[in-house]
Amino acid sequence: MRKSITLARSQSQHIDPFLRESAPYLLITGDALTQLRTLPPASVHCCVTSPPYWAQRAYDGGNGLGSEPRWQDYVAHLVDIFREVRRVLRSDGSLWLNLGDTYVKKNLSGIPWHVAFALQDDDWLLRNDIVWDKIKGNPCNARDKLRNVHEYLFHFVANEQYYYDVDAIRNPPQAATYRNGKLVTPTGVSGVKYERQIKTSKALSAQEKSAALQALQQTLARVAAGELPDFRMIIRGSQRATHSDSPEFSGRAAELAAKGFCILPYHKNGTKPGDVWHIIPEDQWRKDHHYAVFPLELCDLPIRATCPPDGIVLDPFAGTGTTLLGALQQGKRGIGIDTSATYLDLAKQRIDAYLATQQVVQGGLWE
């Protein structure tokens, strides 16, 4: 049975016992920048966080982050904090950063992208900008603009080589079906259209047509045998190469030039998720006075993809512990930092309630 560890501001010496004894989670009360400096270098595998937004809310125990008079000061503050996050991340670690935007005198400030560009200037590599479609959002009474129903989730890494388990996040492939005696892939490909295009093509030679028809039938046979979930076919003169028609820039264009066709197979384990996520914000009636709507589902894929089994997930703005709870639900461990002891107490209650269902011992570990 693993014990949890709860740390007060002055008890950072308990970090080593947490790492050594493999407790499920660690909560640290205090300022993110100050407390991050107490963590040993290369000690966590990924960071998933949503800091206080600029000029948006008053957070319990806030230390000024988000209340800076200028957005430039807010950005600089975050750059300092995430530079310290990079120090405590392993070399193959990832940072996932959720940020919303702010209007000032009718001007949308562009805060998420100001932060993203500043982090790039500070040597972070930006791998994805995910659009979080909140689906319903809040009512908007403005008569001169659209409703704002999205936020950004940025995926940053410190190095070009990093841990990423793409198979852990793939959408499971669907099985092919038969319609009027014809095999049809999950996306509706039967091969009939491709066969007609090949036979009537004026851009293919007779030899290229024969090879293309043979490749099409072989691919359909693989789908029927369950070896391939789906595919697309590009035929010279009928479809264009997806990225460029120049062989200099596109391998598919080069294949089209050489053979007259190419087969684009879907991965046997399913498709990768896209970069637009449709997730409803945290929708339960909250009585804990925490105003953020960071949903558990938003941190599920980042943790699944970039934190290895038994790894450690960090949230330097832990709030009521959503990121840590997401880590524990995947069998991983978590470190949460927050200026608010009230929020962390609520986080402990949420996490311990979950751990109780997993028969994990609760209670602080103190020396």
What does this structure look like?
The protein is α/β, with parallel strands linked by helices. The protein folds into 2 domains: 5-169 and 273-357, Rossmann fold, CATH 3.40.50; 177-265, no CATH class. 30% of the residues lie in helices and 20% in strands. The chain is built from 10 helices and 15 strands. The protein has helices spanning 15-21, 32-36, 71-88, 111-121, 192-200, 206-224, 251-259, 300-306, 322-329, 341-357, and strands at 5-7, 25-29, 44-49, 89-99, 103-104, 107-108, 125-133, 150-157, 177-179, 182-184, 231-235, 261-265, 276-278, 312-315, 333-338. The strands form 4 sheets. The protein has a 9-stranded mixed beta sheet with strand order 1-2-15-14-3-4-8-7-13, with helices on both faces. β1 (5-7), α1 (15-21) and β2 form a beta-alpha-beta unit. The radius of gyration is 25 Å and the shape is elongated. Residues 362-367 have low confidence and may be disordered.
Overall pLDDT metric: 88
Q: How much of the residues is beta strand, in percent?
A: 15-25%
SSE series: EHEHEHEEEHEEEEHHEHEEHEHEH
CATH first level of the largest domain: Alpha Beta
Q: Which blocks of ≥5 consecutive residues have pLDDT under 50?
A: 362-367
Helix content: 25-40%
Shape: elongated
Structural class: alpha/beta
The CATH level-2 architecture of the largest domain is identified as 3-Layer(aba) Sandwich
**Strands, count:** 15
CATH superfamily caption of the largest domain: Vaccinia Virus protein VP39
Radius of gyration: 25 Å
- Let me know the largest β-sheet: 9 strands, mixed
Lateral strand order in the biggest sheet: 1-2-15-14-3-4-8-7-13
